[in-house]
Amino acid sequence: MTPTLVRQRLSHAGSAARVDLGARARDWSEIQERMLVPLYEAVYDRLDVGPATRLLGLRCGSGLALLMAASRGAAVTGVDPASPERLALARERLLPDPPPRGGGTRARTTARLLAGPPADAVAADPAGYTLVTVFEPVGSLAGDPGGLGDLLAGALPLAGRGAAVVLAGWGPPERCATSSVLRVATKLAEPVGGARTWRAARRDDLEEVAARAGLRPDGSGRVACPFGYADLDSAVRGLLSTGLFDAAITATDAKQVDKELTEALHPHRRPDGTVWMPNVFRYLIARVPQDGFTPRRPWPGA
After folding, report:
1. CB contact at 8 A, 66 and 60
2. Fold entry, domain 4-10+17-95+108-176+199-228+278-287
3. What is the pLDDT of residues 171-222, one digit of tens each?
4. In this structure, what is the dihedral angle of CA atoms 10, 15, 17, 22, given to the nearest 10 degrees?
5. Which of 302, 275, 285, 282 has its CA nearest to residue 36?
6. CA distance 144 to 260
7. What distance in Å separates the CA atoms of residue 129 and residue 163, rounded to the nearest whole number?
8. Rounded (to 5) percent helix, strand, coil in the chain
9. Are 148 and 205 in contact (CB under 8 A)?
10. Which range, 89-93, 99-103, 136-140, 225-229, has the best average confidence (pLDDT)?
């Protein structure tokens, strides 16, 4: 669910002028991001996230997962070089207001938000981060695991020995009602050769990323994350905010994508007008080896 595709493809497309990246980020923050709250809670409960936790969130987006960890007392650092618009919203959530005019002190915060590469997130504590998270679903776009491997390669040297690394992804397509809707993105994007389009999750996506990063698996789980919207308009805006339909917009146009997305959502509409799609998400907990970070194996074609 990365906004990078918007910049790479829509910047050269005729529909680029109609894409408001600030509004797209706001839709993600206000409509879509909350759908993954059960996932964040399950991971934080399982790992007992609290005051002793030093968390590094990769692809942190607008920061809801970081905010939830900070509310448990964790010191949090978020990195997201791909979306300055989402990161600006994370700053609104996590960083204190400026001091009042005429004096006063700035409120203390344990949050840091960075737009650069993971290497910029050097931990203040020499012991390093105790938890690294990637809650943006792995493998949603074709070729995404390879890019995540590069991101982890830059982040894992900052983690302490034995630190937990959490990867998340979609569950089996048959357990995710939203899969039928997301297939619209793939169908419409077919005319764009080589487009990074949505694909269904594979069983070992998370394990493959962990293995190539030199991480040791240490447990996994599944969490129900239903997607619920107040109406069809909210559902369309929320799903478009994920970035998974960007290649489809490039291949056709925004109006065509809106039309076909709305049609695909109709079977999930309830009598009261709300939209409800049950989904299951997976997470994998892996560990940095006790003897330190092991460089990842190259991805095929790298």
Report:
1. yes
2. Rossmann fold (3.40.50)
3. 999 999 999 999 998 888 875 555 566 777 888 889 999 998 999 999 999 9
4. -60
5. 282
6. 25
7. 7
8. 45, 20, 35
9. no
10. 225-229
Residue tagged 């919203």 (tokens)? 89
Q: By the 8 A CB rule, do 206 and 220 touch?
A: yes
Is residue 98 within 8 Å of residue 124, measured between CB atoms?
no
The closest alpha carbon to 163, from 77, 290, 60, belongs to 290
Amino acid of residue 298: P
Residue 184 and residue 264 in contact, taking contact as beta carbons nearer than 8 Å:
yes
Locate tokens 């040297």: which residue? 157
- Residues in Cβ contact with 192 at an 8 Å cutoff, skipping those fewer than 6 apart: 9, 247, 250, 251
Q: What separation, in Å, do the N-terminal and C-terminal C-alpha atoms of the chain show?
A: 22
- Report the predicted TM-score, pTM, of the whole model to 2 decimal places: 0.86
Residue with tokens 């797209």: 24
- Write out pLDDT tens, residues 9-68: 344 344 443 568 899 999 999 999 999 999 999 999 999 999 999 999 999 999 999 999
The rounded distance, in Å, linking the Cα atoms of 151 and 145 is: 10
Q: Which residues pair with 167 in a beta bridge?
A: 134, 284
